[in-house]
Design brief:
The complex is a heterodimer. Chain A is of the alpha/beta class. A six-stranded mixed β-sheet of chain A has the order 2-3-1-4-5-6, sandwiched between helices. Chain A has a two-stranded antiparallel sheet with strand order 7-8. In chain A, helix 2 links the parallel strand 4 and strand 5. The relative contact order of chain A is 0.06. In chain B, about 40% of the residues lie in helices and about 15% in strands. Chain B has a seven-stranded mixed β-sheet, sandwiched between helices. In chain B, strands 16-15-17-18-22-21 form a six-stranded parallel β-sheet, with helices on both faces. In chain B, strands 9-11-10-13-14 form a five-stranded mixed β-sheet, with helices on one face. In chain B, helix 2 packs across helix 3, helix 12 packs across helix 15 and helix 17 crosses helix 21. Chain B is globular. The chains are: A alpha/beta, B alpha/beta. At the A-B interface, strand 2, helix 2, helix 3, helix 4 and helix 10 of A face helix 10, helix 12, helix 15, helix 16 and helix 23 of B.
Chain lengths: ~500, ~725
């Protein structure tokens, strides 16, 4: 008689060891021969841990010669359990999950690995690929968001997983034995039993899980209805969700006039005739026009909904008082940004001469839950009327016009190139050093790739690829090494300007 | 609030924060005929008590830490039996503990992680093995090899061979492990030789059961003390000319006695099989992988197999008898070099036995013998040695699963993101590396000499800081010849565990003595955290009372260190300033920064129940955590690259106009404040906020809150 084999993949802190103990205790209570072992990894939260169990079928004893294995083998795993989707993928990747044999019981939620989190944009592994592998490379699947189930039941994910295992009916162990194991371990019995019942219900299809959707938040603003009406009249339907949000965003950020400028600018892009290009530009243009200055940060931090959002996020109960402390650290540049161009120039010049630029900062901790603290930020937010006079505003508008000009110039050469130029605006984001780095990267690409392309020194197709490559390279590492390499390679492929014959 | 100095922890609240061992402690008390259930390493612990040990010691390290950890929690039982427990400061000290068995008929057991720990213990081991013992001496080593191993892949076998220590490698089944443990003491006494027993990580954690016996109180013990020391006997001293005699005795008396004992007591196991022309000799510890491999090839139970529960010495007659008359024998021996295979070759050649020996020609020289590796090796062995066995179906199955894996990898499209271990949420060590990263922005790259411990995770993403790791407590010594050739000073990082283990002498004393111009950062978190938060000399409390035994800063001062700063780690700005000063000061001597902050894992385990109790009593408790304003965050993730806190995650942007995911603090946050500190020190962005939630608020809290909420609500946009 061959044992049933179970492989568990978990993350440190998921309680994989306890899960293992529960299964062993439940099997023992049924008189089944069982053996478990583990590679616990390090105690820390981020490492992956694995557990392996073998359970003899009912009626079989472990004899001296029937040796249970300590290592999982490819193609010989009956049940694979994973507390997280990438870990399920890892068991598939290593060949332990096979379509002829393995029932895969896994949570569909993702806990991103450090490499995925530290990317400068979106570095997460393609979930579609994971799900496809899960479906194609296992015999049967029990999949649901166990993190959500754990949260809803008030228990821990390992108990949900145990419930799903019980619900799968793959082991010759009745539910009561698993529940007894939970009771016997003596910790958080009620919540663990609740989580177990949740998991079992999901596995048996008795519970439906509402997909935890991610809501996009629209800006709430009044007085822009006629602008939205204008957009609806003049622009294609496919771009309207973006454009309308852009109008609301810029009205709230600045005023109606500014939102009108946005629409005027979009009209010139709409005239180019590509709906897709319009949609992309509408998105980036709204983000670029609502650039991050101290006024905007103050606006965000003093908005009416913010306090509710924070309360929900930190899970403060209704009656619990809350204190919020904000971390600010403006420097000379941030101050210059809100001054008129001529004064800003002098201030920056002074900062440069004295070596204070990029060195002198004013570290501030503001309590936005005190009346005075909130009032200080509210005062800054109220400077919105002053914004069009600031040096940052003037500089941003120049940059935006240059970018729009390039898109318009590129459009007749190739719509792909125009779209890539639009998309490269994505590099400009953040504050302080991050913003400086992103803007620097963008300018390098504008000077070294876009300008030559518009001058006809690259074919439009090659130019579109070059801009895309440079953008990806700029997001590859914060030191800019990858971008430098890519730009050098592109320069090598660019035909030199014809020299004058004389 | 966070860097509450370790010294303030009341003694009554100290626990071993890694785990509570109530169940395990109960298992150690089982008596004759009762059924023991548990993990392999706990079975060993029970077996040594059943063997009547008088003393136990060890130094923590995976996977054998539990042996000492459980005994630390079993002080009552040890007191009853009279067993002395020594939690040693390094493996060298643990090995020297066995010196008690040189002169006195006392059984003793020590434990550590091999190969690193055995290296540290080597000096004492040699000088223990030379005179030998009269009381049984057992060394349980965690053979940290293969998947999940955290150290260099070398074999303990080498030490057994060079020092003439006997090495057991029991088949990973609890009854076998227990029998080997008990027999190890007898073997040790019968041959006057210390015995080592190696357990791989899966064997330490394997579950199982065995029938227990009563614990045996030792005849000589803390409870039954000797009136007089042993008479002076120069033969018992590891010093010439005694050592000349010891060497002869080792090979002429002790080894033959061991070979006899192994055979007479049936320590090695023989698994019968019908194929008299074939055979397999396997290290006990990997028997299960072999047996399952044979099963996969449909030949399980057919091939005679000799299971070596003792891998040194081999019993020559037993090996010769096993091989005689066989066409081919496979030696299954994990790791390099192939000591056993070579010894068997020599042994057979000398006896003119012409059995063909297979081994590292069909199995790989290096790496763990996993199920896949074993299957491939067995397929090769049978293909070359027995073409009458039909392997076509198993081979087809094996090729099919490999093809299936290739298909799975194609579907997934390339390697999956790795999940390297990293610093815990709220770890006090992470801010130091954030500060070093910021320092490097100012001064450029610095040579960083890393060490063993949690802080070695800084060599991984997102920090990627560190140029070398030479051993536990070795980082300062490892910079000895680098510092003099660098224009910038070097930074050595060391944990407090490493400091007491080795760093104080081989690092600090040597650097002082040589007038080294180096920077040393000592992570003072109060425990050896990576191995399960065991106590060390600067912990507030030790195993016996609540006193802190030794203070690092005081020790350094006494050593003559002039430039010494103790800094609360969470303050990144101050840490950066201090590092900058250390790198640029005119002081030419050793510069030490004691980076102080209690291990957060230990701290959380201690304070969570306290806070729960406070809440239950209705007391006012302020819960602190951090958050990110998702409207302000732009999705660059600099904060993650500079801190890497596991509770600092990313989520889809709530902004309909942005696609890059934004940073978010999840509910694992313990409120250490590093993300805010880093955002401040690196001038990142204003999205971070600190939230303090008042639980069980007083009327005054609530009144203030109501007034403020009203006023703020009226002002809000």
């Amino acid at each position: 008689m061959k044992p049933l084999t179970i492989l568990i993949g978990a993350l440190g802190g998921d309680g994989g060891g306890v899960l293992c103990d529960w299964i062993v205790a439940a099997a023992q209570s049924q008189g089944l021969g069982v053996q478990a072992t583990q590679i616990p990894g390090v105690a820390q939260r981020t490492g992956a841990t694995t557990y392996y169990l073998e359970v003899m079928p009912a009626g079989a004893r472990i004899s001296a010669t029937s040796v249970l294995a300590l290592n999982p083998a490819m193609g010989e795993v009956d049940v694979a359990l994973a507390t997280e989707l990438l870990e399920a993928g890892r068991m598939i990747f290593n060949g332990f999950v096979t379509p002829d044999r393995t029932t895969l019981i896994a949570s569909t939620h993702r806990v991103l690995a450090i490499g995925e989190r530290m990317a400068m944009g979106d570095g997460s592994f393609d979930v579609g690929r994971l799900l496809r592998a899960v479906k194609e490379r296992s015999r049967a699947q029990i999949l649901f968001d166990m993190d959500q189930a754990a949260e809803e039941s008030g228990g821990v994910i390992n108990a949900v997983l145990l419930g799903a295992l019980a619900g799968s009916g793959k082991l010759p162990i009745p539910d009561g034995a698993f529940e007894a194991a939970i009771r016997h371990s003596g910790k958080s019995i009620d919540t663990n039993l609740a989580a177990f019942a949740f998991g079992r219900g999901h596995a048996r299809g008795e519970l439906e899980q509402a997909v935890r959707e991610h809501r996009k938040r629209q800006t709430a603003v009044q007085g822009a209805e006629d602008l939205i009406e204008r957009a609806r009249r003049t622009l294609p339907v496919a771009s309207l969700d973006i454009v309308e949000e852009g109008i609301r965003r810029l009205t709230s950020y600045q005023d109606r006039r500014y939102a009108t400028l946005y629409l005027d600018r979009l009209d010139t892009i709409h005239a180019l005739g590509s709906g897709e290009l319009l949609r992309e530009v509408a998105r980036h243009l709204a983000v670029r026009m609502s650039f991050e200055d101290v006024i905007r940060v103050a606006q965000a931090k003093t908005s009416a909904e913010r306090m509710m959002r924070v309360r929900a996020e930190v899970r403060a109960k209704d009656h619990e008082p809350l204190a919020i402390t904000e971390h600010f650290k403006p420097g000379i540049e941030e101050i210059a940004a809100v001054l008129p161009p001529s004064i800003a120039k002098r201030l920056l010049g002074w900062g440069e001469r004295t070596g204070r630029l990029g060195k002198t900062y004013f570290s501030m901790q503001v309590r936005t839950t005190t009346i005075l603290g909130f009032a200080r930020l509210r005062l800054v937010a109220g400077l919105r009327w002053w914004r069009p006079r600031t040096s940052r505003y003037v500089a941003e508008q120049t940059e935006i016009e240059r970018w729009l000009g390039q898109i318009r110039a590129a459009s007749p050469l190739g719509i792909d190139l125009a779209r890539e130029i639009a998309e490269s605006a994505r590099l400009i984001k953040g504050y302080g050093d991050t913003h400086k780095r992103g803007l620097g990267n963008y300018r390098r690409i504008a000077d070294e790739v876009i300008a030559p392309a518009l001058a006809g020194r690259l074919t439009p197709r090659a130019a579109a690829d070059a801009v895309a490559n440079a953008r990806v390279a700029a997001l590859a590492d914060p030191e800019g090494e990858s971008l430098s390499r890519t730009l050098t390679a592109i320069a090598g492929a660019t035909s030199p300007l014809k020299q004058a014959a004389e | 609030m966070l860097d509450q100095p370790a010294a303030q922890i009341p003694v009554s609240q100290r626990t071993n924060p890694e785990r509570s061992f109530t169940e395990e402690v109960r298992a150690l008390r089982l008596g004759e005929g009762e059924l023991f259930r548990g993990e392999g390493i706990l079975a060993v612990t029970k077996a040594i008590l059943q063997s009547g040990v008088a003393y136990v010691g060890g130094y923590q390290g995976a996977p054998v830490s539990h042996l000492v950890d459980v005994l630390v929690e079993s002080q009552d039982l040890l007191d009853e039996l009279g067993v002395h427990l020594e939690t040693c400061t390094n493996e060298s000290s643990a090995a020297a503990l066995l010196g008690a068995s040189i002169n006195y008929p006392m059984r003793g057991c020590v434990t550590w992680k091999s190969i690193v720990g055995t290296n540290v213990a080597a000096d004492a081991l040699s000088n223990l093995a030379s005179p030998g013992v009269i009381g049984g001496a057992l060394i349980v080593v965690g053979e940290d090899y293969g998947e999940g191993a955290s150290v260099i892949q070398e074999r303990t076998q080498a030490y057994a061979l060079k020092s003439s220590l006997w090495l057991m490698d029991p088949r990973p089944s609890l009854p076998t492990i227990v029998r080997c443990t008990e027999k190890a003491f007898e073997l040790s006494e019968a041959t006057n030789t210390p015995v080592m027993m190696e357990l791989r990580i899966r064997a330490c954690h394997v579950t199982g059961e065995f029938v227990a016996k009563d614990n045996v109180p030792p005849a000589i013990s803390r409870n039954h003390r000797l009136a007089e020391p042993a008479a002076h006997n120069y033969d018992r001293i590891s010093h010439p000319p005694s050592t000349y005699a010891h060497e002869k005795i080792k090979v002429e008396v002790r080894q033959p006695a061991a070979e006899r004992f192994i055979v007479e007591n049936g320590l090695n196991e023989f698994l019968a099989g019908e194929r008299s022309d074939l055979g397999i000799i396997v290290q006990g510890g990997i028997t299960n992988v072999l047996v399952r491999g044979l099963d996969r090839l449909d030949v399980e139970g057919k091939i005679p197999t000799l299971v070596l529960n003792v891998t040194h010495p081999l019993a020559p007659d037993q090996i010769a008898d096993f091989c005689k008359g066989k066409r081919a024998v496979l030696v299954v021996e994990e790791g390099a070099p192939d000591y056993i295979e070579q010894a068997i070759h020599v042994l057979l050649r000398k006896r003119d036995i012409d059995t063909k020996i297979y081994g590292k020609d069909v199995l790989p020289m290096a790496g763990e013998y996993t199920a896949e590796v074993m299957t491939e090796g067995l397929l090769k062995f049978f293909a070359q040695s027995a073409n009458d066995i039909d392997l076509s179906r198993p081979r087809e199955r094996f090729e099919a699963v490999r093809a299936g894996r290739a298909e799975a990898q194609r579907l997934l499209g390339g390697p999956l993101p790795l999940r390297p271990p990293g610093f815990c949420v709220g770890c006090p060590e992470r801010p130091v590396f954030s500060a070093i990263k910021l320092l490097e922005r100012e001064v450029g790259k610095v040579h960083i000499s890393s060490d063993i411990g949690c802080h070695s995770f800084a060599t991984l993403a997102p920090f990627n800081l560190g140029n070398s790791i030479l051993g536990f407590g070795m980082s300062l010594a490892a910079a000895g010849a680098v510092a003099p050739v660098m224009q910038k000073r070097t930074i050595s990082v060391m944990g407090d565990g490493g400091f007491w283990h080795n760093g104080l002498l081989s690092g600090v004393a040597s650097s002082m003595f040589n007038r080294g111009d180096r920077v040393l950062v000592i992570m003072q978190n109060g425990y050896t955290s990576a191995t399960g938060a065991q106590f060390i000399p600067n912990t507030s409390g030790n195993r016996r009372d609540g006193e802190t035994t030794s203070d690092i800063a005081a020790t350094l001062k006494a050593m003559g260190v002039g430039w010494l700063r103790t800094i609360r780690t969470y303050n990144v700005g101050t840490m950066l300033k201090t590092l900058r000063e250390a790198m640029s000061t005119d002081d030419k001597g050793l510069k030490v920064i004691v980076a102080d902050g209690e291990c957060q894992l230990a701290r959380q385990r201690r304070i969570r129940p306290q806070i729960a109790a406070q809440l239950k009593r209705g007391e006012r408790v302020v819960r602190t955590r951090y958050g990110v304003d998702d409207e302000v965050c732009t999705g660059d993730h600099s904060c993650i690259r500079l801190s890497g806190c596991p509770s600092l995650v990313v989520k889809p942007s709530p902004d309909p106009l942005r696609t890059d995911p934004v940073a978010s603090v999840n509910n694992g946050c313990v409120g250490c404040g590093l993300c805010g500190e880093v955002a401040d020190a690196a001038v990142l962005c204003p999205s971070f906020y600190k939230a303090e939630i008042v639980q069980n608020a007083t009327w005054w809290d609530r009144l203030k809150w109501r007034i403020r909420s009203k006023m703020i609500g009226a002002m809000a946009l």
